Fold each of these.
Amino acid sequence: MKSQSITPLLKRLWRHISPHRHGQFKLLMLLMLLASFAEVFSIGAVVPFLGVLTAPELVFELPILQPIFQALKLTESKQLLLPLTIVFGGAVLIAGAMRLLLLWTSTRLAFATGSDLSIRIYRRTLYQPYAVHCGRNSSEVINGISVKANGVIFGIIMPALTLISSIIMLTSILMTLLMVQPVVALVAFSGFGLIYVVIIRLTRKQLLANSKCVARESTQVIKSLQEGLGGIRDVLIDGSQAVYCQIYRNADIRLRRAQGNNAFIGSSPRFGMEALGMLLIATLAYFMAQQPSGVAKAIPILGALALGAQRLLPVLQQAYVAWSEINGGSASLEDTLKLLDQPLPCYANQSVIQPLPFNHSIRLKQLDFRYSEQMPFVLKQLNLTIAKGSRVGFIGTTGSGKSTLLDIIMGLLQPSGGDLEIDGQTITLGNNIAWQSHIAHVPQAIFLADSTIEENIAFGIAKDQIDHSRVKLAAQQAQIAEIIESWSKKYQTIVGEQGVRLSGGQRQRIGIARALYKQADVIIFDEATSALDNETEQEVMLAIEGLSKELTVLIIAHRITTLKNCTEIVELGGSGIKRIGSYQDIMNDTTLTNTW
């Protein structure tokens, strides 16, 4: 896909920056103007200063300065040296202080804006539908939030501020030099500017190619790290470290090479420009020394031009470096903007969600589902009613749509056709979150954060807002309280990354406790016991069976014996329901008994 030009990308980025930051950027522009005036004053002050050093009587006789001399009661030319030295020194100090203030302000604002953008990306990503998350690689999102958003600071915002500041500074310096020596200033500026224009035209395509490489390979680096470290057990067992190291090496080398090429393209013109600037001043000095007025008159002008060139060349180089960095980061900016453009659901800004009434039943009417228009239907014309407080088990071969059906009931996936109704009310994108407030999910692989037992049971609740008594009650109902309270740190025990310090059964019961802490009235177990041994599975199922009869429990089971206490069992197959029956009906069916 062809990349957009940088201008529309910058306009899109500006729209994602908050109005508060817009105001701060406008104030920064004002500061840039003041800093440029300070630079102009410091350059302009060098002419009278050097004039006093070389020919003070010529300066003393200037008509335009007579009112100032009279106000200061200066009567002879030698008295000019001290005040002009003070003025020149003060001008230089003020210009330096203004540059430091501008650097501090622009850096703080750039990083604050980068933080705003990173937070916006993360927020918008978390609010995306489950189907969106299923359709993309998490490494792309992680790279966008952590790396590319950070790159927007260093590769777009700060260079853009530098470029604007440089343009303002260049304009001011050029105007000052035009007043001192217009012909020389125009020739110098035109010559240097033309050289940079040629360099820009020669390097633009390479910068864009490097930009795409950086965007692509930075994602690949994150992906290789996730896959290598995420599957570390298999990597160690299979001895495949060399393979993952090579994948990482290939991506990292290309990434660093592209970054290095961009850095070289941005920095290299400076050395040639400095040499050309010195050559220009030397040539000018030679010709001015040949004039009848001699060296004395030439020195102030040469000093001003030298100081101006000393300011002009770095500013030109800064502008070019900023341009090259912006173009070098354009592909990463485009990827970041795609994440910033993610739509937010209507409930994102609601602080309190009113739960949807649920007193009677969950009903699926003529339900169809497929993951895309190019794929076959997973579910077709499915009809099912689940009464509140019932225990329903789901069985079926792999790919029969068990998990997909429960994802639809949980509101994670939207039906391709038909309806999901709660007490006769159709679930839509508008009321989906109100229905989800009733639901808790216990998957096969419980996600556990590397924090305390208490924080994992009250998952998603700020630490200072956790209800400790509610945590203990949930643990008791999940039949894990006795084990937790036998540990020295009890509910403050750290579980380790992904609960590595806990057994499989303990992790599953913490998952159940988490669901109970939420006080949901619909709990869904998606093969929550399939990875456990028989004895541990029986213990976990006892915890499930001991739950309140007011709860609606939906269970996908790997073993049919797990479902013996369900009020009914639904077998899925052929994109729909094959049959519904009690546990005894299923066990009496020879065909199904042999299958399961």
Amino acid sequence: MKQIRLIPLFLLFYSLSSLAQTRNASKSIVREEFIFPFQNEHVHGSSIVSLPDGDLLACWFQGSGERTADDVRIMGARLKKGSDKWSVPFLMADTKGIPDCNPVLFMNRKGKLFMFWIAVLANKWENSILRYRTSTDYSGDGAPNWEWQDNILFKPDDSFAKEVGNKFSEMPENQSGWASYAPLYDDMIREASKDLSKRSIGWMTRIHPLTLKDGRILLPLYSDGFNFSMVAISDDDGTTWRNSLPIVGRGPIQPALAVRKDGTIVAYMRDSGDSPARVHISTSTDNGESWTLSEKTNIPNEASVELCVLKDGKWAFFGNDISDGRYQLSLYISDDEGSTWKWKELIEYQEDKKGSFSYPCLIQTNDGFLNISYSYSLGEGKKTIRHVVVDPAKICVQEQAKPGERWSEKLGFAHGQKVLLLHMDDAGMCPEANGAVKRYIKNGNLMSAAVMMPCPEAVSLIEWVKKYPEADIGVHLTLTSEWKNYRWGPLSDKDKVPGLIDPEGKFWHEVPQVVMNASPAEVETEIRAQIDRMLSLGLKPSHIDTHMGTLYGSSEYVKVFIRVAEDYKIPANIINLSVPGVAERFQKEGYPIDEKVINLVSSYSMPKLDNFTSVPEGKSYEEKRARFLVLVKSLDAGLTEIIFHPSLLTANLKSITGTWQQRVWEAELFSDPIVIKFFRNEGIAITTWKEITARFGNSIEAKNDSSRR
């Protein structure tokens, strides 16, 4: 059976090399400072607002703990216009004997300043009372002169419970979630929603409100009891409030709101539900009254997120785009209202993963800059709130390839040079494949290969290759078992991935069979298991790709592939579709390249392949070699990946595949003196994914050094 290859067209937002950056390498930061010095008390949940006179006012909660300590109060500080130093902190609110948390600052269209927060009754989030203060006298040096204070109380009617029931009926069965009222979700959440006392209290603030064109204010709220969200609605500039229908899902909390040009309101939310942790999204087409069932995006998530529509129409997203801690904060920019996020920059990153940076507030001031505040902790005695000012225009300036420039040149290879990434596919499939891969690596002829982890010989190859740290080994993500008599199945428990299994208990033979039967969730479960298997064996993959192109069999599979790559921070390969004729050639060959994909690829600033192809077949070894040399001669300058499937000749190999002869010849081709001499005479460079990643990291560092001079 001939293998069908679909070209991998996406690269994760960051590669291993980009993650080696620290926040100090950010090119977009205009200024940065701690609002107050490091101290021992817990400080968290900041908010920031721009006052009419150009001053900035910030607040946060501070005390001996969060809900467990009764000395928690709301503190604040000012940054006077033109000043480079924040004021000494001052008290903003303190409900004596009760923790005060999650403050939010907001200016309504009439110039009235609001501060919303929660008083945590009985030290339980689900008992929280929503409070607010207002002021029109907020100039000066200390806290605003608060002129009004009240609680915001709700009494959601039976439509609340009906909405919860309807939305949960739309969700697939899942008992892996968590909520205070319902450790196993679903039925218990439905029952809790019928309890008037439970649905009336416990609604908490976190993100600043959104003002619509007609003046309606939407205040984002969430419940740790229900583990989902809703919004408070005011149609009289904040004088009175009522609740919307809930934003239902498995764990969508702390919504951040934005409005599309067509009037649709979008909520991006922190994931407090089942694995994998991803940013949730929900929309409203009736000005916030009701919301769609939340869905997970492909953005990893650990804690609170923020969203802002910029003055030029772009959207900014900020948050912890990882799922194993709070050591990273990233700023994303979109020019298509969040359909894609074309630009990304790390603002905080700790390589040792010990830092904690979270709960941001994001606003754009009149100068066009983004002002961000967030919790900053390096451990005991090193806690504060950080303020960072970012110029979004510097993020959105992409370095486009010059006419005729290839990615090989951007990576530091010589102008006009052909650079080949010679890649051994199907490693680990059988002893014969392993023998050929080992021989190439041991002799130093080739180093790049990808292992089929479900296959019977994967583990033995990995144990062997660990003795060769220079080897460039990835995971050949495998979801098909194409041969007639030599089969394999999933690494996952079969009851978790039934759609991936054919009547023989193995993977399906063909890609269309996988697409017709396997859900994206099943696909994700299995490919994670394959990556985890290699990691558990003590080998970190240098890259990932997809056997038989299965992960490009549907758009949903593509989303899964991207999501997993981003989560594990393992680079995938991508084609530089800006090279003249490349996109058109692959389109004619039936590859799934449309305008959206081309636009996505063009927005990436990570390294790309300039071309992709495979070793041609031949009726004899001499013909195969000759056709390969002609192929290489025909290539334009640039970085080209060429895949092949080397194997050693045995009776067993002949029983597995009808392509055994081509594979055997490919096991000889790249140790052939004629081929080696050809590469030398033609001035062709041979590279690996490890070298590409390292060169890309060096090019970033060089640019950062240049910008700092």
Amino acid sequence: MPEMYVVATAGHVDHGKSTLVNALTGMEPDRWAEEKKRGLTIDLGFAWTTLPSGRELAFVDVPGHERFLANMLAGVGPAPIVCLVVAADKGWQAQSSDHRDAITAFGITRGLVVITRADIAPDQVSATEAQVRAELQGTPLADAPVLTVSAASGDGIDALIATLDQVTAEAPTPDGEARLRLWVDRAFTIKGAGTVVTGTLTAGTLRTGDRLRLIGETTDEATAVRGLQSRNSAAEVVVPSARVAVNLRDVAADDIHRGDALITPDAWPIVGSVDVRRTMGESLDEGIHGLMLHIGTAAVPVHMRPFDADHARLTLERPLPLQVTDRIVLRSPGSRNVFAGVVVLDVDPPELSRRGAGTRRGRELAGRPETGDILAEVARRGAVERAQLLRFGLTVPEALPASLALEVEELAGGAADVTRGWLVHRPTLETWVERARKTVERKLSAEPMAAGVSEKALAEDLQRSQPPLPAAAQAKAGGSRGGETRLAESADVRMLVSEIITRAGLETVKGMVRPPGHSADLGPAEAGVAEVERRLAANPFAAPEADDLRELRLGVRELAVAESAGRLLRLGDGVVVSPRTPAQAMRLLAGLEQPFTTSAARQALGTTRRVVIPLLEYLDGRGWTRRIDNTSREVVR
């Protein structure tokens, strides 16, 4: 498939954007009868052509009227290249500034400017160009090429096409291996095909059969790609950047809205709040309420909590798939103007509960680069999976800061996939190691008969430290619609706990963490346990009666400690035997005619039904014997 590039138009109403697109493509971008009747673009229009180089070029034509600024933002938001249109006979006007500000806020750095209607006002072209240059100073389009054309006569169209070819040739190659996030701009039903959505694919690759997640205003569900089209032609694969139509399975078109997103499953954080930095526009501490957040084709109401003039927290009315470095436009719904442009610094911001926390958070964010701060993310959490950092949109460098502890391969003995490992803050790891050591010491000091501290209890104790050991699925407040888990749901902290135990000089035996070689101190129970061991050595199947155990002062706690120490084995119904008894029983049972009855087993072992039934059930559970029916068993060979 030839390379395709997507260009969004921008500019004041009635400056000739749609006419220009028609002159370049031969296609009428206005889709609605009302648009054609009024001669006014109301919604997004689409057209495409082939450049002399063979590259494909798709246009997203946006409305220029101030009443349709939201639609304009939905068209420009996902676009990698923009074409700003200014009419020679009208010059720079109000919406020219609004669209310029939106382009700047979205961080679109590649584009060109076209001065149209040169045939109507040829004597004003130079002045208009000078005006355009002045208005674009300090913006990403300051050095963009400026072309003069007349769509009516065709003058300048060939030069414009050549410039478009040059601009697309110089555009960086989009990442076809990236995770997918396709912002939906239309959804409809085609008879015989079903639900179709369209959007601008700027990264990632779409293939027929791909499993995707659709998340949006009223839906969050799994779906799959039934079919693909680009430029009205069927395709098995679509690579960025391209306009694409996606035929989806298992979802109704009525459930999909502009601003919903198709994403790679389990690859994006779905967030309800983000911390941001102002990149342009008004000061964030102006106290503006009722703002709308625009990204891609989405428009979501947000509440803004300013930290200072340049940093704030945005709480979204509904969650979106966002990442660090995302560029966002903020505007007041009642205004035609862009209030501010912001860049996302943190998609998993910490709770702010203490007095002065907002001011302190502003200072923290002021020192953070726009590309994110790996060290800050790990230090705040103590430990975080590398895969989770990648989901946040952060790039994990090969050379890690010295304050980060050994990475996953060493924590896992070299067996782990590097993309799924942990990064650990070294000072925090040392704190966890010391806490683990002291927790075990306190337990054994207070309870000498204990076999140690259970691994689960130790992990729970470490999760109460500051910062806490991460949990496997520590959800944000607000449930599933309030955001994804703080850490990956697949996070396995056992590897991390195991490393902490090792560094603390401890060992894990049968799920209990203890110092190496530790043996539970049976104290006064030692004599009773020794007596039971003596009796069972003489007759392994003569389990002591309950009265015998009481006389020896062996209660549930003492027997549990003796079992943890490997000195006794408790079967069901209060039957206590030697840990060697099951193997001794198997040698005798293997000599019986197979299958054998419970009665035959009892006689062979020289014991009672009280002992033989729980013993046989234990052997069944180990897979050493197998029940044939209600009365018979056989030894598993």
Amino acid sequence: MKIKRILLITIITSAFIFCVNLLGGFTFLENKTYDFRTKITASNSTSEELFVILIDQNSLDWASEQMNWSWPWPRSAYGDIVNFFNLANSKAVTFDVIFSEDSIYGKEDDENFAKACKDFGKVVQIQFYDSASNNPEIPVTSISKIDSNSALQGNINSIPDSDSIIRRCRLFYNRNNEEFPTLASSTFIVGSENFSKDNFKSTEEYKHLKKIKTDKDNSVLLKYKKGLESYIPYSASDILQSYYAIQKGEEPILYPEDFTDSYIFFGYYAPGLFDICSTPLSSTYPGVGVHITLLDNILQNEFIHKSHIILNLFLILFTAFITTFLIQFFERKFGIKRTILFSSLFIIILILSYLTICFYAFRLGLWLPFVSILFSIILSYTITFFVSYNTEGKQKRYIKEAFKQYLSPVVIEQLILNPDKLKLGGERREISIFFSDIQGFTSISEKLSPEKLTEFLNVYLSKITDIILESGGTIDKYEGDAIIAFWNAPTEISNHAQRAIETAIKCQKEIQKNKNELQKICNTEIKTRIGINTGFAVVGNMGSSKRFDYTMLGDSVNLASRLEGINKQFGLYTLCSEETKLQAEKFGSKLIFVEIAKVQVVGKSIAVKIFNPMQKEDYTANKLLWNKFEEGRNFFYQGEIEKAKLCFKSIAQELPVAQKYFEKCNSTKLPVEENLKGIWIATEK
């Protein structure tokens, strides 16, 4: 493996991606992933100390019908809301409302509201800088009477990103070397037990805020909840009705003690009244929700923090390295085609795994980069394949072109991946072996012209070869019409027996399917005998030092050859050994295996069981015949030849193998010797 190349590609890719990231090239897309993560991970888990009071449509309807208030409401109503929470001994009441003009209800109305604020001493009003005003350096605040009686003024200047979405909010707003707590920070500070308007910077709450890690502009990334509804908002009309009921000594709708030691946010939520902004959750999110979210994050110490630049660099390096390394590894082991498949699958798994980590980390408050990592994977993937194609790729294409006329594609791939195999030598390995031969081919070939014979063999061999290669088999050689193949070498295939036997069935089906085409060429019906055995053999490159073939040797190979030939003695066309049957069934083959005989093949002293494999539907169509055959076969095994003969005779016309057994019974000398009971001795190869 080219370690230097892997490291070089990793460094080049990582350096480029890291620089683009530093220059903000991924910021827009990364922000969009922030939005997506927010939507997926947002929860309803809000601080129990935080309550939201809203003027909604129900409040407006109640005020109009019960109090004869038109819009805007009298400021004394806001004062009564403050008085209710004064009774509750709440920590703070914050108004996300600007009272920038005198009340239309008169001077006394403003004074009532201001007095309520002063009496409570923990009311927060807003301020902001309007760049479109005539005096952009002077903050916009409520009228002096209300403003001067507030505990603090919280700044509400927002800091949307380039796409106008608010993902961050300041803890403090700095302008002209002066620091202003923002609305949420002011609320948190005012809630202090030892709060003092003149010396609020000495409170523990203020000191806590200063310790929170922020960006250069004092901003933090917000961890949004699912929506403003997560904070269980109360209607302003319910608060007022409860306060008026308490004044009259009646039962209130809401009890003040339910809001003790709580932070209260007041805002508008009726259609046409509240300001809207774009957040990761919605493009029409109530503006007050941003400040409520920040206070909730402060109270629960839940913020989103960007991962450190060193961690980002490590992630870029790691993903670039692992992508490059595994592509090189796959290419060395499997070749280019399967490398593309495996590496693409790996890339998908890697991206999905990292995406899962990103979501989990985000839920815990860590914003890991995703877009830069995605580009790191894609770029290293592309560069690695480009380099491989223009270096090893040329050499591999040359080898393929040189050997494609002589070796199977599988063997060629093995040579490409392991050039050391281009030398003599073999290994002992369990394989499944396939021998096939056309019935009566000698007489067929004698009747055909050389051109017709060539045409026939090309068509026939191509169809059978394609099926074998598609199943992962290796073509050993062609001997005229005969095809010799095997599975589990040079590449390992665990279910090689299943593949071999099912390939044999497919070959027989293909021959049957194309019988008219083949018969048209050779003027006779084509039938092929196939024998399959599974066992250990020596496989490898065999021959001379200058010319050799990838082939196999051993008793298992000889037995497969004998099984192909012995089909003739049973009137069958596909036979396999017991070992092939057992292994095929072990890996889930659905074929039916009918035991045909215990055969002592030529050159062997020990009998082996042989089986006729067939598809279930073919077996079912002749099940009664096969049941009768098995009855006769069992009699034959027991040496009861006369009983066997009667069974076979009854089905000899329908089942060729029964006819062969009937003939065998007629030629068997009685009584059968004990050591020969049930043994079919093959008389020819």
